[in-house]
Each structure stands twice: as structure tokens, then as C-alpha cells.
Design goal:
single chain, alpha/beta, eight-stranded parallel beta barrel, two-stranded antiparallel sheet, 11 helices, 16 strands, 36% helix, globular
Amino acid sequence: MSDLGAPRELGRSGVEITPLALGTAGIGNLYTEVAEEDAYATVRAALERGIRSFDTAPHYGLGLAERRLGAALRDLPRDAYTVSTKVGRRLEPSDAGGDDLANAFAVPATHRRVWDFGADGVRRSLEASLDRLGLDRVDVVYLHDPDDHEEQAFREGYPALEKLRSEGVVRAIGAGMNQTAMLTRFVRDTDVDVVLCAGRHTLLDASASADLLPAALERGVSVVVGGAFNSGLLADPRPGATYDYAAAPAALLERALRIKETAERHGTSLRAAALAHCAAHPAVAGVLVGARSAAEVHDSADRFTETVPAALWAELRASGLLLSAPGPALGLSDTFRLLRDARHAPSPHRPQAQVQPVRGPGAGTPGAGT
């Protein structure tokens, strides 16, 4: 088993995640179908490598990812892992027929997505997710991509999550997005425990360093980083590679190739450097990687534990290839002072309620619908 490092707490929630977590869009048939057994083998491989934190969403395969994840975990003690899911897209039955490839998932279009960040929609979405997962609780719930629904998300969606947390239904709450401006607003203006930031804290995109990461460090909010490879370019830079799900511009491809060449001269790999960069900032609690096979899980775990020499970062900064150094531009004493003060600052929420199911005991069957 790989040594992924000690679990890390999300804010002051009491929820701990492993430094490397598994995202489940892949086993929800992202782009192409994944066989049922391959999906289960993917989750089993994660467990073998010490990954105990799993992220999912109704959006992923119109609920397929949640069903498969729940089935793969059903024989484990509930306290042996953490699960995060998301709200904001409710699934409603549809008889339109066809497939869901227009939304990037190779599944039958049995449902349609309905944007809903209202209080009732948040609770209904969570209840449906628990049914698909076969669980009576999840550990973390994120508002999912509220870019075009900002005011409803802040006015209704966030208070609904805060209420669920105060009731003990969930233990940690936050928002997950591909941008930093609104996530920074969540960090500064609400009492979220964690934010999930995809693609904005990578070797090729340093935008989170300008606003989100400093704010999170100051406020004691944890950041989970997704999109470490910017959808493919930093995993395998070559002509035709994708950057943020579109063809990579020539300038970014050239830069990725130069970073890869530099990493290999220092005895490491581009993928290892990409993951290490994401994990290095003290506001970051974990790095979320997607996988659609056991082999991909093992590769990510191997790269995550690979040694990345300090000399690599020095050369990348000197050459202008790295726009931000791993970690904040603070001295160590300043960093640990901020972390200490943030961790021990009083929190306006947290009556430490026992975790309660959002629905009655026995509702749903573990692994049902898989």
C-alpha cells in the first residue's frame, strides 16, 4: 500500500479526507462506457492504495456514478471512508430517449438535469443521492457549479446546506466550481468548511493563487483541488491533447512539453510534478483525481508518492515556466501562524450534533439500482 500521508481535516468540521481522493465521473461513463466490473475494480484499487475519500455527483452519468460507488463500498464499515456528493442539478425522469453524450456521458438519457439551488431542491437532491448511494448519510455536500445561479446559491442553497449541517445531517459543506472568484466569495462571505476548485491551481493555471488560496488560508477553509492535469494536457502533452475539455492551444502545449522535459531531467515525471504542485499549498487538504480503471488508480497513487526534487521547482520558476511556487508566498513562521490561528478561531456554527440520516432508517438498499 502506498503511503499517501496522514488524513487531513476539512476546516473545523471533524471530517478527515486522505490527501489523494478518487473522483467518480469516469466510472459514470464519462465520454465512453466503463464495464460494471471495471468500475468496481477502480474503487477496489483505490482502497488497496489507501484512498479512503470518494467524490461523486448526480450529474455524473445521470446518477450511475453514485450507484456504482455505493455498490462498491456497501460491504465496508461506514466509518471506513468519506463520501462527498453535490447538489444543484436535480434529476427528473425523461422519456425523450437517446443518450446523454451531449453532456459528455455515455448513458441512456433516462433522466434530465434541472438546475435547482433552492432550499427544497437541495434537500430533495440529497435524498435522491442517498437512495442511489444506498447510504443514510454523506460526509460532505457541495453546491455544484452555481456559476449562472449565484444569487440563488447564496440566498437559498447555502443556507439550506448550513441548516443540514446544524441538524447533523451532513458534517461538512461547501461549493465546487471551475472558477475562483465565486469560490473566494463563498470562503469570505459564508461559513463553508471546504471548497472544491477544479483546474485553477495547476502547473498551467495559477489563478487560485491570486485570491482563493490566500483567502482559504486566512479563514481556515480547506481546499480540495481537482483537475490537476487540466483535463489531459498535463497527463500526456501531445498534439490533440485537451486543456479544460477543449483542444489545447499551441502555446500551452509547448509550455507543458517544456515542463515535462525539465521534470524528466530532474528524475521525475510531469504527472508527479502536477500532483505535487496541487498538494503543496497549506490550504489544500486533498487532491482529487479521476480514474476509469484500476490501472489508472495505481498510476495516480504511484505518481502522488513519487519524490519531486526541490531543484525542479527552482528551475521552473527561474525559467518562467512556473507562474506560482508550490505553497503561498509566506515565510514558514507566517504560514504556521496563519494555520494555527485559523484552526483555533471560534466558528459561528457547530453545535456538535450527532450525525442524523436525512431519511428514516432502512430507506433504500445498499447498492440498489446497480
